[in-house]
Amino acid sequence: MGHRDDLRKFISDLAVVHGRVVLSSGREADWYVDLRRVTLHHQAAPLVGRVMRELTADWDYEAVGGLTLGADPIAVSMLHAAAETDRPLDAFVVRKAGKAHGLQRRIEGPEVAGRRVLAVEDTSTTGGSVLTAVEALREAGAEVVGVAVIVDRGAGDAVRAAGLPYRAAYTLADLGLVA
User: Fold this and answer.
1) For position 140, which CATH number holds?
2) 12 is in an annotated binding site
3) Is 125 annotated as a binding residue?
4) Is residue 70 part of a domain?
5) Can you give the residue range of the structural domain that contains 68?
6) Which pLDDT value is given to residue 21?
7) Which of 21, 93, 99, 146 has its CA 20 to 30 A from that of 115?
8) Domains held by the chain: number
9) In a domain, 65, yes or no
10) Lowest mean pLDDT among 2-6, 96-100, 128-132
11) H-helix or E-strand spanning residue 21
């Protein structure tokens, strides 16, 4: 099996949790995709980086990240996957709110101003979290080239309506789930 198939198996086996849950969007669902069980797993995390790099290989960007917490392990996995290539990447973390002490930065890591960046998220239903990150990145002077998620739960229209290209490594149908 290839990287995509291997990662899909990890997602199905480790991340899909059945039972009634309330999503961050406020919507209710009969199942939840807890991708941190995959993005922080010793075998699956390297696959996350490779699959997401392959998904966005034709986009030109120098740094990757998004709103903490969902985006953090994805960005780090992509940073490590890129280190194995001739196209290195920096990673960054977008805080939910500005820091009140120290350097008071909202975006941690290497500077993003003037750079082409990719915004990522583990899974997205409404696009709210990733669009919050996009707004902070634009305010910091970054050029956001697109948004990529591991699993799309329906955010594509909202992200495209915000004027950004959108890609997902997996749809709900790919995972045998229905919205």
Assistant:
1) 3.40.50.2020
2) no
3) yes
4) yes
5) 46-175
6) 87
7) 99
8) 1
9) yes
10) 96-100
11) strand 16-22
